[in-house]
């Protein structure tokens, strides 16, 4: 199958982060600082990405502000003509720093929020982080940039959905993304502690609907459904190696941010192979493009062009083979794994991201 050029790139500049969120999708085996790409190597990755067709660059992590060369990388990406989005916890985002980054070319900021009140937010973040979010949001607004507030929902904050919407309004968000936890990396490790109850999910949906009506034209409210509670899988990443690539802190190039979990694949590194060659020719990017790789029941299913068999990472993590149907699908022979995982358990403590 011939791939189209990528539209976006998630540049995970570092795995270092002042927060320790138990739902983090970063790998359990985090990339250490001494293995991170240098400034010149990131510049080269950005230049190659633009030549390949990438228009949107998401500077993320970990916490991208932990990289001292962030301003330089922003200038470089902007100079190439990319739309630059900064994905941050907000810790260390002072007014001065935000003004400088905006002047260099950051055009949008996504700010994570852990809960509606400071005490609970700090417990979830494993750090005294909540008070910094207000400073960061004010700095983003003062710089005149659009602000998206990102909240990962789970059992310990789901009952706060209404209050979280109020907080996002107070912070001046243009967009609020309420995303039920997707179980990869640290989130999978903490699945039992994070899994929302059916009652929480049922209670949240009317609250979100009412907020959408009330805030129409002022703040967009996006609600990402709880994957495990659905009977149909999501068309993950809009297809494997279809629209976006991820570059990990050490230069590993991935078809999706969680692809490192698929240990049956070998991933190339941007320091060893040109990005365009990796995108078009590598075995990892071509592994699940198109439909040839599909097994039954996807292979003969009418929905295979709609949901593309769901998520390859989830299929691998839960069944041991990425070619299998995502077990979220009720037609999957492994669907019982998901049904058993959504049964509420007695509260267990979080394992904080290390
Ligand atoms: Fe989608 Fe495969 Fe399930 Fe059909 S069998 S609905 S293609 S995941
Ligand atoms: Fe990797 Fe879904 S998260 S394909």
- CATH fold-type name of the domain at 8-229: TIM Barrel
Strand order of the largest sheet: 7-6-5-4-3-2-1-8-9
Structural class: alpha/beta
Question: Compute the gyration radius: what is it?
Answer: 20 Å
Q: What are the bound molecules?
A: iron/sulfur cluster, FE2/S2 (inorganic) cluster
CATH domain class name of the domain at 8-229: Alpha Beta
Number of helices: 14
Span of the ends, CA to CA? 40 Å
Number of DSSP E strands: 9
List segments where confidence is low: pLDDT < 50 over at least 5 consecutive residues.
Answer: none
Order of helices and strands: EHEHEHEHHEHEHHHEEEHHHHH
Output mean pLDDT.
95
Helix content: 25-40%
How is the main sheet built?
9 strands, mixed
CATH architecture of the domain at 8-229: Alpha-Beta Barrel
> What sort of overall outline do the alpha carbons produce when their principal axes are compared?
globular
Structure explained in plain terms:
There is one protein chain. This protein has a domain at 8-229: Alpha-Beta Barrel (TIM Barrel), CATH 3.20.20. Helix 3 packs across helix 5. Helices cover 35% and strands 13% of the residues. The protein starts with 7 loop residues before the first strand and ends in a 13-residue tail after the last helix. With 354 residues, it is of the alpha/beta class. The mean pLDDT is 95. The protein has 14 helices and nine strands. Bound molecules: iron/sulfur cluster and FE2/S2 (inorganic) cluster. The site of iron/sulfur cluster has 14 residues, from helix 12. FE2/S2 (inorganic) cluster binds at residues 236-237, 256, 258-259, 311-313.
């Amino acid at each position: 199958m011939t791939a189209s050029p990528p539209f976006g790139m998630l540049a995970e500049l570092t795995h270092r982060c002042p927060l320790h969120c138990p739902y983090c999708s970063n790998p359990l085996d985090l990339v250490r600082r001494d293995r991170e790409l240098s400034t010149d190597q990131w510049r080269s990755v950005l230049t190659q990405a633009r030549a390949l067709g990438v228009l949107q660059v998401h500077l993320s992590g970990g916490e991208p502000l932990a990289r001292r060369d962030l301003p330089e990388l922003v200038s470089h990406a902007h100079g190439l003509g990319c739309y630059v989005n900064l994905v941050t916890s907000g810790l260390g985002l002072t007014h001065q720093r935000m003004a400088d980054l905006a002047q260099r070319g950051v055009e949008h900021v996504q700010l994570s929020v852990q809960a509606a009140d400071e005490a609970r937010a700090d417990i979830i973040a494993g750090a005294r982080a909540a008070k910094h979010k207000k400073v960061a949001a004010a700095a983003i607004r003062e710089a005149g940039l659009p602000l998206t507030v990102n909240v990962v929902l789970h059992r310990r904050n789901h009952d706060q959905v209404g209050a979280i919407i109020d907080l996002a309004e107070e912070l001046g968000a243009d967009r609020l993304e309420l995303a039920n936890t997707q179980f990869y990396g640290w989130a999978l490790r903490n699945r039992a502690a994070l899994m929302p109850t059916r009652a929480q999910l049922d209670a949240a949906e009317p609250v979100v609907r009412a907020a959408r009506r009330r805030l129409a034209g002022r703040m967009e409210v996006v609600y990402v459904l709880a994957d495990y509670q659905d009977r149909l899988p999501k068309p993950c990443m809009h297809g494997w190696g279809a629209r976006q690539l991820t570059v990990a802190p050490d230069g590993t190039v991935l078809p999706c941010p969680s692809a490192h979990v698929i240990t049956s694949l070998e991933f190339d590194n941007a320091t060893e192979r040109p990005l365009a060659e990796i995108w078009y020719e590598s075995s990892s990017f071509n592994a699940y493009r198109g439909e040839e790789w599909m097994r039954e029941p996807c292979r003969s299913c009418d929905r295979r062009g709609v949901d593309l068999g769901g998520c390859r990472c989830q299929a691998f993590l839960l069944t041991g083979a990425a070619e299998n149907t995502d077990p979220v699908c009720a037609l999957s022979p492994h669907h019982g794994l998901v049904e058993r995982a959504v049964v509420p358990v007695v509260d267990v403590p979080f394992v904080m991201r290390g």
